[in-house]
Amino acid sequence: MRQDGEQPERINMTKLLFAVSAADHWTLSDGTEHPTGFWAEELVEPYNVFDQAGYTITFATPGGGTPVVDQASLEPDAAGGEDRSAELKKKLEELQPKLSNAAVLEDLNADDFDLLFVPGGHGPMQDLAVDERFGELVRHFVESGKVVAMVCHAPAALLPAFASGGRWLFEGYKLTGFTNIEEVQAGLASKAPWLLQDRLQEAGALFSSGEAWQPHLVVDRNLYTGQNPASSRPLAERVVSDLAAK
């Protein structure tokens, strides 16, 4: 109970659309299907930051399917050790009821949210990158002046977003994402049907890259992007900080 003279508790009413790929594989250049999904750290760390900030978080996927974690992201070598892997697994178990009841992305309206966040993994390269309806949703967020934030491979989901005149919406924007060098070091570049850095640059983005596997953020207007898994928490923290300052 509030005592006389105390300030009323501030309630954060920020509504976040947390859009996650529904893909469980990535079709490689030879036609084989590489198991994938979302990258654990890129979902868990931003979720923790946004949840701590008091945001109302709505998970959504194409078709409302339950998103799949890329099992490679839970391997100790990728996660940062046995303890870190166990921590990620535990958090994903806690979140499973929310993920299993993800909203249908196609049914949602940008007017009902304050910002959009998309985690990476190769999943977005398979579905969101070619989803015209999602591109329209992104356009509505951007044209409404709302924050759009994506990390690692998730900026692939910017590719289907076009302005009303047919121009790619992010032409001339500074941004970042998983680099060609990181894809080579991860071992999939030679099998990839296309590389994210190349495709974004070809579309007209001003691509920025930092040191491989180290945090690197780029903010241009209301677009926030992070380069790799290590950028996940810093990206979410930057979004929260900037929105709080407004």
Describe the secondary structure blueprint for this structure.
Blueprint: E1 15-19, E2 25-27, E3 33-35, H1 40-52, E4 56-61, H2 76-79, H3 82-100, E5 103-104, E6 115-118, H4 123-126, H5 132-143, E7 147-151, E8 174-175, H6 180-186, H7 196-203, E9 206-207, E10 217-220, E11 223-226, H8 232-245
Parallel strand pairs: 1-4, 1-6, 4-5, 6-7, 7-11, 8-9
Antiparallel strand pairs: 2-3, 10-11
Helix pairs in contact: 1-8
Tag the structure with descriptive keywords.
single chain, 246 residues, alpha/beta, Rossmann fold, 7-stranded mixed beta sheet, 11 strands
Q: Tell me the CATH topology.
A: Rossmann fold
Shape: globular
> In angstroms, what is the radius of gyration?
18 Å
Uncertain ranges: none
**Helix and strand string, N-terminal first?**
EEEHEHHEEHHEEHHEEEH
Q: Which CATH architecture? A: 3-Layer(aba) Sandwich
**Would you tell me the structural class of the helices and strands?**
alpha/beta
- Can you tell me the number of structural domains? 1
